[in-house]
Design brief:
- The protein is of the alpha+beta class.
- The protein is built from three helices and five strands; from the N terminus they run βββαββαα.
- A hairpin with a 5-residue loop joins strand 2 and strand 3 (28-32).
- The radius of gyration is 18 Å and the shape is elongated.
């Protein structure tokens, strides 16, 4: 793998159950496990799936017309069984509408194909979830 293909974040504990993730460009997002207003790690996973697909579909459709409505709902069931904790029944639902203007018919026509192409080929996040990827863990010597 090349340096160009590597992606990374650093997660730091800020207090009990609270964390901040920082990307190499300095962007941050806070999250927690206590059920407060912040996102939980599972909600971040759902947001990543929806955000990745939303970006793909937005690029494909908005070049033809600016949407009047564009939202993506991502749902799933968190279960715990003999295989451990995991998400099942993941579903991504697009709600997209285009005003009647130049290009709107074309944008509406390509919307289903754009959603399918994102799911089948483009969205790195959902492709990784569906295909699975090993996760190696280690403890760094202090």
């Amino acid at each position: 793998m090349s340096q160009d293909s590597q992606r990374s974040v650093v997660v730091e504990r800020t207090s009990s159950g609270h964390y901040v993730a920082t990307n190499p460009r300095g962007g941050t997002i806070t999250f927690s496990t206590d059920g407060g207003a912040e996102f939980t790690p599972v909600e971040l996973l759902l947001a990543a799936i929806g955000g990745c697909s939303a970006a793909d579909v937005d690029v494909a459709t908005s070049r033809h017309a600016e949407p009047a409505e564009f939202s993506v709902a991502v749902t799933g069931d968190k279960i715990s069984d003999e295989e451990g904790n995991r998400m099942t029944n993941l579903r991504v639902t697009f709600s997209v509408a285009f005003p009647d203007e130049d290009g709107a018919d074309r944008a509406r026509a390509i919307l289903p194909r754009a959603v399918k192409t994102s799911h089948d080929r483009l969205c790195t996040v959902s492709r990784t979830v569906e295909l699975g990827a090993p996760v190696a863990t280690e403890v760094k010597d202090s």
